[in-house]
Amino acid sequence: MILILRTTLWRSMFFTGVWWILIQGKTDTWFVGLISISLALVTSFILLPPNQYRFSFSGFAHFLIYFFASSLKGGIAVAWMAIRPNPDLHPNIYKITPRLPEGLGRVILANTINLLPGSLSVELTSSNLYVHVLDERQSIETEVRSIEEKIAHMLRLELKN
Amino acid sequence: MNILELCSIVFLVVGAIFFLAGTIGLLRFPDVYTRLQALAKVDNLGLGFTSIGLLFQAPELMIAMKIILIWLLTLVASSTISFLIARRAMKRGVIPWRAKEHIIE
Hints:
The complex is a heterodimer. Chain A is mostly helical. Chain A has 2 domains: 2-47; 57-155, no CATH class. Chain A is 58% helix and 10% strand. Chain A has a 3-stranded antiparallel sheet with strand order 1-3-2, covered by helices on one side. In chain A, a hairpin with a 4-residue loop joins strand 2 and strand 3. In chain A, helix 3 (57-83) packs antiparallel against helix 5. By secondary structure, chain B is mostly helical. Chain B has helices spanning 3-28, 32-55, 61-91. Chain B is elongated and about 55 Å long. The relative contact order of chain B is 0.14. The model of chain B has no long low-confidence stretch (mean pLDDT 87). At the A-B interface, helix 1, helix 3, helix 4 and strand 2 of A face helix 1, helix 2 and helix 3 of B.
């Protein structure tokens, strides 16, 4: 019960914050805001029921630094592949068994892989994650493992071996 | 021209280059998966640099926060949509394009 109340409180604050920034602090559309925030709250409870996730801010900072650094590195590589005369693509699909427990962690993992240039999640089943890569000569496994560690640290999850 | 304007222009130009590269990739790459990669990734960086470039010109904090928020929301949407398109393509049996000559190590 306390968990539900606490989750409701945090999520309402989050959605209100998002709304407040989007309308640039104006107050004349509060009615539309109230409806949107309520709908977002209900949707979030359907998609992600209250749970015991704990959030580590230092873990989040590490994650962000890693994310931006590798986005930049991969982004330049992919942009160069697109522009140069011979793209020299070597795409392949790899199957990876995530060490993160099922749920939010794995969804964040799949999305992070999508945002990192050069890799794309094509399927997430209950046991495996399928990743499409642009260049199979570079190890995707090492990269996924290191993203997993960052996410586990951020959400304070245990990694399975 | 002051230093803020210069920073803004540099970031906007870098952003535009990423957008251009992403679009060229979309046209040149061989199949749906590689095209998704070119489009989604390079555009994310393109939008990132464009947002940072615009931050230097933001007249007030509220607008700066809004620009960052729009970028973050776009990242989440773009990532989810790439996944959905790629998964649908897999389910429909679209075979990923493979390079013909493989380098043997």
